[in-house]
Design a protein that fits this description.
It contains seven helices and ten strands. It is an alpha+beta fold. It has a domain at 82-288: q2cbj1_9rhob like domain (Jelly Rolls, Sandwich), CATH 2.60.120. The strands form two sheets. It has a seven-stranded antiparallel sheet with strand order 1-8-5-10-4-3-2. The protein has a three-stranded antiparallel sheet with strand order 7-6-9, with no helix packed on it. Strand 6 (212-217) and strand 7 form a beta hairpin. Helix 2 (40-71) crosses helix 7 and helix 4 crosses helix 6. The protein is globular. The two termini are 26 Å apart. The protein binds fe (ii) ion. Fe (ii) ion binds next to loops.
Length: 336
């Protein structure tokens, strides 16, 4: 019998304990190691939540696409389907305002802030330590001024992003930082739910000297180039990509990353101001389901509680080594 099953004796307490184990200090010291490392129960819990999160986002994305096709049957196929990445440039005034507000934001050390308490990198990989992050990037704290400029920018590009994705979308979290010269990122895919995409803004422009994002489309590397306010939305979990640092001697390159979440209407308002750009582990439109007109079983709280219990039950059955069970076609829980 899996020792983890003992937790099912008191599920509510078990969920509370596991969530508490995932909590991390507000100020993370250099070289910090997540409490999940070396904690098999906490890792099984993480994997179960991740599997259910991806399932929820898949279903939600499918529903958002079906809704969009029903509302706009004549809309063409999503541009990302054929070209993988769309690039645009803000009108000069909006680009200049974004740059001005970015540069006025206070610089802050890297911290690990996670929307909805859900960790997407619980294993304290070397590239997630504060010392490393503060070497390659200089983070800034979102100001009211930048939030306003970003809202204008996202409103301006909303129709283009909709055409790229083929469904309505909502802004999620934003991450505000400058990429320092001389520290390229590694080639990777983000490994997010496939319906959750990333929008990148470059308030001071991007290109060969300033640095940029390099995407592998087909076999070809494509570098995003443009003036102030150039932006891109791309298949960040399907296309391999990397951050290209500014050339030595160039100033740090301002960057704003925004998550584009599938949705049932466009909503450009930023919902989270983390230093991580992330996404909630459950689709966001379930927040705020309260009151007389919502069935008791479908209040936000009831849905979240059932989801936590499902994660607990799934975690109880997951193999402790994290490997795929027989008959899963080799797919591990981190590949879903
Ligand atoms: Fe990435």
């Amino acid at each position: 019998m899996n020792a983890f099953k003992e937790l099912l004796a008191d599920p509510a307490q078990a969920v509370a304990d596991l969530v508490a184990r995932e909590r991390e200090p507000a100020d993370i010291p250099d070289g910090y190691v997540s409490p999940l490392v070396g904690d098999p129960k906490a890792i099984q819990w993480f994997r179960a939540r991740r599997a259910l999160s991806f399932y929820a986002w898949d279903i939600y994305t499918g529903a958002a696409i079906a809704h969009y096709r029903a509302q706009k049957p004549a809309a063409p196929a999503p541009l990302l389907k054929s070209i993988g990445a769309c690039v645009g440039e803000l009108p000069p005034e909006a680009g200049a305002r974004l740059e001005q507000e970015f540069l006025a934001c206070k610089q802050v050390p890297w911290r690990d802030q996670r929307p909805d308490g859900y960790s997407f990198d619980p294993f304290a990989n070397p590239w997630s330590t504060p010392a490393y992050r503060d070497t390659i990037t200089a983070h800034r704290e979102m100001s009211a001024g930048l939030e306003g400029a970003l809202n204008v920018a996202l409103t301006l590009i909303a129709p283009a992003v909709e055409a790229a994705l083929g469904h309505y979308w909502s802004a999620g979290a934003a991450r505000v930082y400058a990429h320092n010269a001389g520290h390229d990122g590694g080639m990777h895919t983000d490994g997010w739910p496939l319906g959750v995409r990333k929008i990148m803004f470059y308030p001071s422009g991007a290109g060969d000297d300033q640095g940029s994002t390099v995407l592998i489309i087909g076999e070809e590397p494509k570098i995003i180039r443009g003036g102030k306010g150039v932006w891109t939305v791309f298949e960040n979990s399907l296309l391999r990509h990397m951050a290209r640092a500014p050339l030595p001697g160039q100033p740090p390159r301002p960057t704003i990353e925004v998550t584009a979440l599938p949705a049932f209407r466009n909503d450009p308002r930023i919902k989270g101001h983390g230093i991580h750009v992330g996404f909630p582990w459950l689709p966001p439109d379930i927040d705020g389901l309260e009151g007389d007109k919502v069935p008791a079983a479908f209040t936000s709280e009831a849905i979240k509680q059932r989801s936590a219990l499902r994660a607990l039950m799934l975690a109880a059955d997951l193999p402790s080594d994290g490997k795929a069970p027989e008959g899963c076609g080799g797919l591990g829980y981190l590949d879903l």
